[in-house]
Design goal:
Blueprint: H1 14-19, E1 25-28, E2 35-36, H2 38-51, H3 59-65, H4 70-81, H5 85-103, E3 109-110, H6 114-123, E4 127-131, H7 139-145, E5 154-156, H8 169-178, E6 185-189, H9 192-200, E7 204-208, E8 225-227
Parallel strand pairs: 1-4, 1-6, 4-5, 6-7, 7-8
Antiparallel strand pairs: 2-3
Helix pairs in contact: 2-3, 2-5, 4-5
Pathway: Organic acid metabolism; glycolate biosynthesis; glycolate from 2-phosphoglycolate: step 1/1
Family: Belongs to the HAD-like hydrolase superfamily. CbbY/CbbZ/Gph/YieH family.
Protein name: phosphoglycolate phosphatase
C-alpha cells in the first residue's frame, strides 16, 4: 500500500483556493483529460472495419464516438458500417484490440497545460494516479511514450474491477490504495463518467472542456473548476 507524505510549502495557488486545502491524491482520467489519443483509436477502429470488409470511419467520426469505453466505441463503428451488433460485436472488439495494440501510441499528444500541472503536483509531493475506463493493457505504453509514466505509481483500467466509472468503485479502490479519504482526494476528468464517479465517491472534481464529452454539457455536473488549461491552477 502506498503512503503519502505531507506536501511541502505549496503556495496559495488557484488549486488550493478551489479545493479548500492541499489535496493528498489527485486521480486522472486518461483519454480526453491527459492525452489526445484519437489518432491511434481511429487507426484501430478503421483497421477493424477494413478487416470486416467495410469502409473506414476516419478520425473526425471516431472523435465523436470516443469516451464511453471500447465496447461502445466498437458498437458505434458497427452501426456506422451497417453491421448488426449481435453478430459482429465480439469480433469487432477483438479486431479493435488487435489493431490498437500496434497503434495505441500513434499521434499521441498531451493536452495544453497537462505537463505543467503534473510537474506542479509532483514538485509538491501530491500523489497522482490514473483511473480510466480504457483496458489496462494499453495504459503503460501510452504513459511511457509521452514520458509521464513516472508521475503515476498506480493505474487502474476499466476491466480491473467489477464496475467502472461512473461507478464510485474505481475511485474508492484507488483512495484505499493510498490510504486517503474522499475529503483529501480530487478527480480530474473530461466526461460525465468522470464527474458522476467523483460525485458518487464524494470526491471533489476538476472538469476540462477540451476532451471527449460525447456531446454532454459537463458544466451541468458539480466541479470546483471548469477550464481548458490545467496549468491555470498552478498560479
Amino acid at each position: 500500500m502506498n503512503q503519502i507524505s505531507t506536501p511541502a510549502n505549496i503556495s496559495q495557488t488557484a488549486l488550493v483556493e478551489r479545493f479548500g486545502d492541499i489535496p493528498k491524491l489527485v486521480m486522472f482520467d486518461l483519454d480526453g483529460t491527459l492525452v489526445d489519443s484519437v489518432p491511434g483509436l481511429a487507426a484501430a477502429v478503421d483497421g477493424m472495419l477494413i478487416d470486416l470488409g467495410c469502409k473506414p470511419a476516419g478520425v473526425d467520426l471516431v472523435r465523436r464516438w470516443v469516451g464511453g469505453g471500447q465496447w461502445l466505441l466498437v458498437q458505434q463503428a458497427l452501426e456506422f458500417a451497417g453491421l448488426p451488433e449481435a453478430d459482429y460485436l465480439d469480433a469487432g472488439v477483438k479486431g479493435f484490440r488487435k489493431h490498437y495494440a500496434q497503434c495505441s501510441d500513434q499521434g499521441l499528444t498531451l493536452f495544453p497545460g497537462v505537463k505543467a500541472f503534473l510537474e506542479f503536483l509532483h514538485q509538491n509531493r501530491i500523489a497522482m494516479a490514473v483511473v480510466t475506463n480504457k483496458p489496462i493493457d494499453f495504459v503503460p505504453k501510452i504513459l511511457e511514450s509521452l514520458g509521464i509514466d513516472h508521475y503515476f505509481p498506480e493505474t487502474l483500467g476499466g476491466e480491473c474491477l467489477p464496475e467502472k466509472k461512473p461507478s464510485a468503485l474505481p475511485l474508492e479502490h484507488m483512495m484505499a490504495r493510498f490510504s486517503v479519504t474522499p475529503e483529501q482526494s480530487l478527480m480530474v476528468g473530461d466526461s460525465s463518467n468522470d464527474l458522476l464517479a467523483a460525485q458518487a465517491a464524494k470526491v471533489k472534481s476538476l472538469a476540462v472542456t477540451y476532451g471527449y464529452s460525447r456531446g454532454v454539457d459537463i458544466s451541468q455536473f458539480p466541479s470546483i473548476w471548469l477550464g481548458d488549461d490545467l496549468s491555470q491552477l498552478c498560479a
